Each structure stands twice: as structure tokens, then as C-alpha cells.
Amino acid sequence: MATHNKRYVMVIDSKKCIDCKACVVACRAENRVPLRYSRNWIAEEHRGEWPKLLAAFEPGQCQQCESPACVRVCPTGASYQRPDGIVAINESECVGCRYCIIACPYDARFFREDKGVVEKCDFCVQLVDRGEIPACVKTCPSKVRVFGDLNDPDGPVRQLLERRRHLTKKPEAGTSPQIYYLL
Amino acid sequence: MLLQFLALSDTAWYADVIFPESTYLERQDPAEVMSGICPVVVYRQPVIKPLHDTKPTLDIVQGLAKRLNLSQYFDFTIEQWVNAQLKELPLETPVDYLKKHGIYAPPGFPKYGTTLNAEHRFVTKSGKIELFSERLQELGYDPLPIYQSPTPPPAGMLRLILGRKAYFTHANSTNNPWLNAFDSENRLWLNPVTADSLGVADGQLVEATSTVGSVRLKAKITQEIRPDCTFMLHGFGKRAKWQRLTAGVGACDAQILETAWDKVSGNAALHETFVKVRRA
User: Fold this and answer.
1) Where are the domains of chain B?
2) In A, residues 70-89, which contact B (CB 8 Å cutoff)?
3) How many domains does chain A have?
4) Is residue A65 situated within a structural domain?
5) Mutation site, A17, A20, A21, interface B, largest B CB count within 10 A
6) Cβ contact (<8 Å) for B178 and A19?
7) Which of A90, A182, B28, B187 could form a disulfide with B220 if both were Cys (CB 3.0 to 4.6 A apart)?
8) Is A1 part of any domain?
9) At A126, which CATH number?
10) Residues 43-72 of A with CB under 8 A from B
11) What pLDDT is recorded for position B148?
12) Do A50 and B181 touch (CB under 8 A)?
């Protein structure tokens, strides 16, 4: 049920992250991801010497690239991009060659030994197609994540990106990532 | 000792009889009142059927009452109980309302500066907010809050700090496999300066001893603790073998925590224990 003029993206305000990992747990529950894998994560940074210390947390996941390297290298078309921008995987087409895992600049994909297929964050398409938001966004207690349509000029995503400075991760990889991190 | 419990905790481990209670997601509870400036009545209904052979509190109490020939005192259903609780609410059909909305809040949200009338007095001696409390003075306490620096730890000892991680609920959820995967063993935090003086390397087994007990766990050397303090995460080193992921893994802070409380408020003072740490 893809709609043509939509472009789903996520804006992440890492400064609000308290490392509670509710997003990781919610994703695991919603997408039935076994314990040894994870579609999302919280990267930690610890610096300094006592008493001058810094700790920072940053949620990471598939960056839902505009020109996804994973889709380009997929020999079967299992990895594909929907018209609304979401990069998803058609499990029944995946042969487990894992080219996409190597191609992804963000290390966001993993191989499910039990199913023989590659998996990653797909913005919870099953929820998005019902008009809901991804599980990680819904559960976040400190509202780190904002999900929405980049092409909606009045939507929360555009409002935030017009007001706040932001960056994307590894833009030099040339895949035009669509997770925006607020500064 | 009798116990009703959701999880087979360390408290359950010490019980003689355990009544397995359904979780709050599986049972109809009496309505709950949350008091305060904006009081609300909360409806507590099950969202799933019990996963295991468990019962709600009222069923457990009624079963016990029957055995003790006291059934007449518990001769009602949970629905009747909730109806009786809610019947005074200024609503036509309070139960239906709460089933639909989940909570009832009295109309008119209090606004700062508008709720107190001229006659209002606080329950203090002066009837006002007291910075200087004559009552505290009469009882022999400082009438004005006076800052007292914490006693520094005696030579060769460290102050034990208690704390939690955002993904664990107190000491209760460390055995949940999804959460345990984030942190599966607690360690004793030591500043590198402290660790050096003790000759302890990261990951090495250490022993922390207070006046009430002694525990053994691995050391974690980190800049994120003061050199005169140490820390260990709550909820590990459990006794209950049923807590498969945390029984005997790491150590339990309660084993070395000394009893202390704030003399004015009576609150538990959890950071007052000094421990001696050495290589185990």
C-alpha cells in the first residue's frame, strides 16, 4: 500500500537518549527478532578522566538510504525500495548470499542462521501500512525519535529539520541516508 | 511465611508457601486512586488471559477464607467490589466510563496560584510554608536545613554507592532474558587510581566487605566512579535458583548494605556503607 508522494524518514535527537534500550526491546517484540540478533542498537561513547567526564548515547539502525547500496548489490531483488522510500527485504526472494551485509556502510544488516535470510530495520512496515508508527518510536520514553513524511511540509519531521541543525551519518558513502540526527 | 508473588524472587525463596498470582496484565484489580493535586481514579483491567496457572489476588484470598471458614467476609466478585468503589463518582455509568477512558479525573485542572483560598493554612505550626521549623527545633533537630558533608570513608575504605540501569526495574527484572542480555553480570566499579593502589586489574575477582557481610564479584575499572567510592548494580547474585540468569551471578548489594536512615524524614539512607575492597 505504498503512496507515491510520501518519503518516510526518521529524525533522532540523541541528546535526549537515556540508554534505557526500550527501542531495542520493542523492536525485538514487534518483529520477533531472536536474542542473538538486533535490528537496532544504542551506541555509547565514554570519554574523559574523573571528574571531567562525558557520556553520550546514540541510537543506530538501518539508515533507510535514498540510494541504498544493499538494493544495488542484491542479485535477486529481495532487497528493494518501496515508493515511500522504505528499504525492505522480501524474505522469500533472499538466497542468503549476504552481499548486502558487506555493501551496507552502516553495518545494519545481519544474517539469520535459523531462517537463512538477511534481516534489518524496515521501519516496521507492517505497522506503517496500518497508519501506525514504528515500535521504537512509539515506545521511546524521552521522545528521541520522530518518524514521518519528509514530503509533508507541515509534518513534524520537516518542522524539526527546518528549525534544527542536523546531520546524516557517513554521507561520503554516497547512499543518501535518511535518518537525520539533530545536533 | 506466606507470600503472593509475580516472580520467584529471593523473597519467595525464603517463603514457606507461595501463591502464584497473575501479573497486572492478566487480572482485574480494584480501581486505584492516585491522590495529589490532580487526583485520578484508574481502572485496572486485564489485557490478556493468564499465561500460566495463576490466580488474581481476590481468588487467592477467597480460597484461603473458605479454608478458614471466613467465606462470609469475602462474599463478592471483583466486579461488585469495583462497582462499590466507583458508585460515588459523579458519573451516570462510572464503570462504563472507566472501561472506555481508563481513568477518571475530576473536571477543572488546578492552576498555579488559583487553588488556595485566603483561609487555607498548611499543616505546619505557623500555618505557612516553614523554612525555619520550630517543631524540628523542639524535637532536637536543626530548625533550618543545614548542609552536612558526608563523612569521608575511613582510610583504606570506599563508600558503597547504590544505583540502577535504566533498563532494569529496581532489582526485579534482571532475570528477564531480553533485558539480561544488556548486562548479564554486575561488577564492582573502581576508579583506576583506586584499582592501582589495591593492585586490582579489570575483570579480576575482588571481595567487598562491610560490617554486615562480604561479597565476591569481578572488578570493573572505570573513570566513571570517584576514587573514594565504589558501585555495584542492583539485582544480581540472587539466591533463588529459579532466577536462572542471576542466581549466583555477580553479587548482591543487600548482603553488604548497612542499615541507615535519615533522622528527620525516616527515609532509607542507602549510600552510608563503607566497604573494604581487596583482591579475592
Assistant:
1) 2-104, 158-279
2) none
3) 1
4) yes
5) A21
6) no
7) B187
8) no
9) 3.30.70.20
10) 46, 48-51, 53, 55
11) 86
12) no
For the domain bounded by B2-104, which CATH number is listed? 3.30.2070.10
pLDDT of residue B125: 85
Cβ of A42 under 8 Å from any chain B Cβ?
Answer: no
Tell me the residue range of the domain where A126 lies. Answer: 8-182
> Under an 8 A CB cutoff, do B177 and A51 touch?
no
Residue A49, domain member (yes or no): yes
- The stretches in chain A having pLDDT less than 70 are 1-4
pLDDT band, very low/low/confident/very high, at B2 (cuts 50, 70, 90): low
CATH code of B158-279, in short, is 2.40.40.20
User: Count of CB contacts below 8 A, A vs B?
Assistant: 34
ipTM over 0.85: yes
Three-state SS across chain B? CEEEECCCCHHHHCCCEEEEECCCCCCCEEEEEECCCCCEEEEECCCCCCCCCCECHHHHHHHHHHHCCCHHHHCCCHHHHHHHHHCCCCCCCHHHHHHHHCEECCCCCCCCCCCCCCCCCCCCCCCCCCCCCHHHHHCCCCCCCCCCCCCCCCCCCEEEEEECCCCCCCCCCCCCHHHHCCCCCCCEEECHHHHHHHCCCCCCEEEEECCCCEEEEEEEECCCCCCCEEEEECCCCECCCCCCCCECCCCCHHHCCCCCECCCCCCECCCCCEEEEEEC
